[in-house]
């Protein structure tokens, strides 16, 4: 059998915090338990918010924690053509359609919300005629491209995947994916030829990832990933969803909330052992 492969894939849109440290340490622990290989992936498809200095900081912080990885480091910003090709395969299969709805229009028409709490897209543009779509595309209306999740599910049928948990020592269990609860998710935008959902499944397959560790906040998103893996003929890894570190507000640590960075803690005199103890390692 081939050696197990894992990956750690932060976004360079800010500095790593303790939540990232926990996720990294879980991934490296799983790699050691499986006698596997771990890769570093830089998920920088958001070229407006992602900065080279944050990428360099990620490398420095991980090295400071005593972690190493196999080469090469994959940069998603260098792979837009590959993601666009995957999207085109879905388009040719009549599974991707243009959507011209604004956020305000979606919020006004939505009935319910997706697992992340965002307004659930009601499928408005799914019902446009080809002539209407062509006219609006030629006119240059703001557009994003959505997966026809219902049609996709009709083609794939029941979807399952394996999960190890709640600890890394547990036996894998079978779960059923429910991508329909996400509605028709966005896979491409006019200014970015991919989305997190699309790029992550393409890259996991490209890097040969066999075991995937991720925070519980991404557990529901796995429904969409398993669906895309089936549609694109890609393998489905074995998943492990680890606990999250919570802040004083009861929510998960996040760059957007200004959670204290590893660099700040290091400047205050913290050691890698201090970080490990703080996150339960």
Give a written overview of the molecule.
There is one protein chain. The protein has two domains: 1-77 and 245-281, 3-Layer(aba) Sandwich (Rossmann fold), CATH 3.40.50.620; 79-205 and 215-237, Rossmann fold (3-Layer(aba) Sandwich), CATH 3.40.50. 37% of the residues lie in helices and 17% in strands. The protein has helices at residues 18-34, 52-64, 80-92, 103-109, 130-139, 149-156, 196-206, 222-232, 262-267, 272-278, and strands at residues 5-8, 37-42, 70-75, 96-99, 144-147, 160-164, 172-176, 186-189, 211-215, 238-242. It has a three-stranded parallel sheet with strand order 1-2-3. Helix 7 (196-206) packs across helix 8 (222-232). The chain is globular. The mean pLDDT is 95.
Secondary structure topology:
Elements (H helix, E strand, L loop, with lengths): L4 E4 L9 H17 L2 E6 L9 H13 L5 E6 L4 H13 L3 E4 L3 H7 L20 H10 L4 E4 L1 H8 L3 E5 L7 E5 L9 E4 L6 H11 L4 E5 L6 H11 L5 E5 L19 H6 L4 H7 L3
Helix pairs in contact: 7-8
Question: What attributes characterize this protein structure?
Answer:
281 residues, alpha/beta, single chain, 10 strands, Rossmann fold
Low-confidence stretches: none
Kindly estimate the percentage of residues that lie in beta strands according to DSSP: 15-25%
The figure for the number of domains is 2
N- to C-terminal separation? 30 Å
Overall morphology: globular
Largest sheet: 3 strands, parallel
Per CATH, the superfamily of the largest domain is HUPs
Q: Which whole number gives the mean pLDDT?
A: 95
User: Percent range for helical residues?
Assistant: 25-40%
Radius of gyration: 20 Å
Query: What would you say the CATH architecture of the largest domain is?
Result: 3-Layer(aba) Sandwich
- Structural class by SSE content: alpha/beta
Secondary structure tally: strands: 10
CATH topology of the largest domain: Rossmann fold
């Amino acid at each position: 059998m081939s050696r197990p492969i894992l990956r750690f894939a932060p976004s360079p849109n800010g500095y790593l915090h303790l939540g990232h440290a926990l996720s990294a340490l879980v991934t490296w622990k799983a790699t050691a338990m499986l006698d596997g290989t771990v890769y570093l992936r830089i998920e920088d498809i958001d070229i407006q918010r992602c900065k080279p200095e944050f990428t360099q900081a990620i490398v420095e912080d991980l090295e400071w924690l005593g972690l190493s990885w196999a080469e090469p480091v994959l940069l998603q910003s260098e792979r837009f053509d590959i993601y666009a090709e995957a999207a085109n395969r879905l388009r040719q299969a009549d599974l991707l359609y243009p959507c011209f709805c604004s956020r305000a229009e979606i919020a006004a028409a939505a009935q319910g919300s997706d697992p992340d709490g965002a307004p659930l897209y009601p499928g408005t543009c799914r019902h446009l005629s080809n002539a209407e779509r062509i006219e609006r595309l030629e006119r240059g209306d703001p557009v994003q491209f959505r997966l026809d999740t219902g049609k996709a599910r009709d083609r794939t049928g029941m979807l399952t995947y394996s999960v190890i948990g709640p600890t890394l020592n547990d036996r894998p269990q079978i779960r059923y994916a429910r991508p329909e609860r996400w509605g028709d998710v966005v896979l491409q935008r006019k200014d970015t030829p991919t989305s997190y959902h699309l790029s992550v499944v393409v890259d996991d397959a490209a890097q040969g990832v066999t075991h995937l560790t991720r925070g519980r906040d991404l557990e529901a998103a796995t429904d969409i990933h398993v669906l895309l893996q089936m549609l694109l003929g890609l393998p489905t890894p074995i998943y492990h969803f680890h606990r999250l570190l919570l802040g004083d507000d009861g929510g998960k640590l996040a760059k957007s909330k200004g959670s204290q960075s590893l660099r700040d803690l290091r400047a205050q005199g913290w050691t890698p052992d201090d970080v490990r103890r703080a996150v339960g390692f």
